[in-house]
Amino acid sequence: MDNTEMKNIQWFPGHMAKTRRLIKSNLSLVDAVAEILDARTPMSSSNPEMDSLTAGKPRIVILNKCDLADEKSTQKWLNYYSQRGIAGIAADCKSGRGLKSFLPAVKTKVLGELLEKRSRNGMTGAPVRLMVVGIPNVGKSSFINKMAGSKRAKVEDRPGVTRTKQWVKLENGVELLDMPGVLWPKFEDQSIAVKLAFTGAVKDDILDTETLAMKLLSYLAENYPDALAERYKTEFSAEETGLQLLEKVGRKRGMMISGGEINTERAAITVIDEFRSGKLGRITLELPPAGKE
């Protein structure tokens, strides 16, 4: 994605540094770490600091919102993590789809050796404790609520609302330590920031809505032209500029203002909302590094 014409997107909420300290100071309390990722952007929605922050602890990734992601691409990501020695499952945490495989995966693939050792030492009653991490708005609260069968974690649609850690006990001797969502202080790669803006992981006012929609349409015209054609009942070409694509959406939807001009702001809001709600189809914004699937 071209980022030459856009300002640098930064992220500096004060609670982020506090969260990093919380993760490090509480790591000794847990047996493993569960990282919630967005299945549409597994790499971009994974904090690059997570490897160092959780060093030495077994990890499982939950590719959330898999119902919105390209199914074949999601499988490529699961293969990628498996080759790195990281267990992974695909899930839709709102509906609970896929979450039945979470605890079995934890108890066999992630903590199998530890649980066998506990069994040999007569410690079968010891709780399994997991730290749940993930960037803001990736679905941590939905995951915890579904696992706990309650509304213990308040679900918000705005980025960055879980501020303090909290323990959630499940019925089967598993305890989840919910950590506040944590982003990193600076995006070295601006294309990552753009992808996070596409999915709503960073606040919408960080980037102009029309610019964001034009970038999204350019990506979709190149990678998912059939999905665009199906939704907006017209052909889209990767040769067209982002503005031309946006105007085409506005024209097809009758979003006109006085003088025959197209209301591109309204069209931009429509495109972003329809992408996030899955109305454009199942779309993945990035694939694993070449040769690592």
What tags apply to this protein structure?
293 residues; alpha/beta; six-stranded mixed beta sheet; 11 helices; 8 strands; 39% helix; elongated
Describe the structure in your own words.
- This protein is of the alpha/beta class and 293 residues long.
- Helices cover 39% and strands 12% of the residues.
- The chain contains 11 helices and 8 strands.
- A 6-stranded mixed sheet has the order 3-2-1-4-6-5, sandwiched between helices.
- The longest helix has 15 residues, at 209-223.
- The two termini are 22 Å apart.
| Class from secondary-structure proportions | alpha/beta
Please trace the helix and strand order, writing H or E for each element. Answer: HEHEHEHHEHEEHHHHEEH
Reported for the largest beta sheet, the result is: 6 strands, mixed
Q: Give the beta-strand count.
A: 8
Spans of at least 5 consecutive residues whose pLDDT stays below 50 are 1-6, 154-163
Nearest-integer average pLDDT: 86
Quote the distance from N terminus to C terminus.
22 Å
What's the arrangement of strands in the largest beta sheet? 3-2-1-4-6-5
Proportion of beta-strand residues: 5-15%
Helix proportion of residues, in percent? 25-40%
Number of helices: 11
- The shape is elongated
Q: What is the CA-atom radius of gyration, in angstroms?
A: 21 Å
